[in-house]
Write the structure tokens for this entry.
Amino acid sequence: MTSQPSPLASPFPDMPAVAGVTLRVARARYKDWDRADLTLAEFAEGTAVAGVFTNSACASSEVELGRANIVHGRVRALVVNAGNSNAFTGYRGREAVEAIMAQVAGSLGCAREEVFVSSTGVIGVPLPQDKARAGIEAALAATPCSWEEAAATIGTTDTFAKGAYASAMIGGKRVELVGIIKGSGMIAPDMATMLGYIFTDAAVDPAFLQRLLNSSNETTFSCITVDGDTSTSDTVLAFATGKAGNVPLTSFDDAGADAFAAALLDVCRRLAHLVVRDGEGAQKFIEIAVAGAQSDDSARRIGLSIANSPLVKTAIAGEDANWGRVVMAVGKAGEPADRDRLSIGFGGIWAARDGQPLADYDEAPVAAHLKGQDIRIDVDLGLGDGRATVWTCDLTHGYIAINADYRS
Amino acid sequence: MTSQPSPLASPFPDMPAVAGVTLRVARARYKDWDRADLTLAEFAEGTAVAGVFTNSACASSEVELGRANIVHGRVRALVVNAGNSNAFTGYRGREAVEAIMAQVAGSLGCAREEVFVSSTGVIGVPLPQDKARAGIEAALAATPCSWEEAAATIGTTDTFAKGAYASAMIGGKRVELVGIIKGSGMIAPDMATMLGYIFTDAAVDPAFLQRLLNSSNETTFSCITVDGDTSTSDTVLAFATGKAGNVPLTSFDDAGADAFAAALLDVCRRLAHLVVRDGEGAQKFIEIAVAGAQSDDSARRIGLSIANSPLVKTAIAGEDANWGRVVMAVGKAGEPADRDRLSIGFGGIWAARDGQPLADYDEAPVAAHLKGQDIRIDVDLGLGDGRATVWTCDLTHGYIAINADYRS
């Protein structure tokens, strides 16, 4: 995190400890840098885990093993390596992850399947086993650290540390939910993978935690995009230690389940927004609200088609209320749309309704809105009740400078 | 066409007249500019027509009417308006197109359905009927013009006029195929729609011409991308006047059909490449050859996922052999892929095979290749026999400058 912070950066929030979670960091020196780059989170016995992983067909060994282990629903440790993604490294990459799992399981006296590993950074270079081993030894012996230190340590090309926090009441017990995340787009030769972790002291059955994480993911992490590119290592894990002492949540029939679900969704949404706010070269945060689609899924796909359109993203960078480019992006989404029912607005003001520019459209307030940092685009398909909101950032010279003005 | 020509520009070729085709241009002054902006092509009676149109769900009235009329298979005139796309203009836009069809049909004494109209340029402003009417009158009275004048007149943000030419022998008769095209990405507030037209003096049954155009389109126009954005007006039309006097082609059983199909494919491919060579901000022409996929369709989708990836396109702009970004783009394509069978190469040299970087990989010749203007990326999925080749350009500061550094 040596670059200038993003102009859209948020300060790191004050976040409480979560009983049953101990964080430590160490210097594995995966790259030639002077910073902690290995994070070890240790969890109390009986901690539940749930996870969502990249859809990439070329996922890393970390993701493959994580997918295999998540079905057991239990976790004792998380290791995050920054500086080397270990992606596209064949069997040697897999051996490196298995070695970490064995080492940590041996030290903590738990099953290997209870150790989760994430890696982010340079690809095509197997994670060096000696550095990982020494780093984990150092981490095991280190003094516990803060959320902010852990959030900074999992980061690679991030320009600021990212955290979000919420709480909920379950049957008279207060539970805390704390999240940290890294990701800012992708940068050569590092893949700026999105890695997000949510820690709670609530007692939650692993299957129900997975269900809640899936549903939160659908409207948060799955609704953000920086450049439409998907890392081979994207991972979000949720850990529930149960130390709050509530009656374990197993379904929405349980008292407090709704409150917990709402808090989890809130943390996920804020973490997702922080990733967009650190998008490479981002100068503006863009919220795209799609209504009137044939279904929520259709609305989300239309929203992402707009959010991924280079022409829409450059128009916003240029502070240009170019609704024609939004029409174009709706049209190419491959979803039901009717040109003559389509309405497009910026900052709450309709520019075009029912397929035609508004006769009395006043561009002045729209132009003022577009000069701000937080941009809102409204799209109404006029077809049904489907809605979705997605988030992205603008496409600027900064993105090109970061990703092209570079030689490996 | 006032900007600097693209560094990838090709000189306009010397192309023969096509019997049965008369080209004229005029100044309709759709914009406040000093250039011809209306093109009128007149065809001999009995000319066959085939067409492919944008898949956009928000297509312009020109496209809607073109789709409706193409089924009749006959054409007497084509009108191309540059400077106003007439897209997203509701019923007034449709009326403007119908007025042009009626005016031209009245002058030439043909059916309205035999007049095709394309428009490209600013969106959201109904095509002014008075300007169109006067422009068509002027064009009808004008001296016939050259291919190059017509190619320049249909252009908007294009930095050079684009044409391609081939010939074929059908049963001892030589037939000519001449194509012109415009398109360079999309530029605010103009939509730099791709409009392509192929003219031949061969006699070809309309249904067979449509079949040949569909199949040529699949491996040419449908395999190029500049920014992944799709205009609401994209159109390719093929016109066959029959003046060469060959026995009309009706199927591949006819002598000369294969030769004609090959020539048509050749013209389409060269026209498609010219559009990429005029991509906004393009500094490099990129050919991406995908092999070993489960099917040709799958290979094409994987190729386009790579070609549309901002991270791949910026890597090429930066002359960086970043095969990790290619892996990422393969992984996110949503197509069958196996990380451990995947091979990636640049300029004919494999950088990674079977999921791992090559131990003896020599980056020097690859680096030299990437310094050139014509870049080749090879991808082998190692799964099946599916193959496809797609073309794109790099993503540079020039693209951002054209699309963001602008206020409407």
Residues 187-191 of chain A have pLDDT under 50 and may be disordered. The first strand of chain A starts at residue 21 and ends at 26.
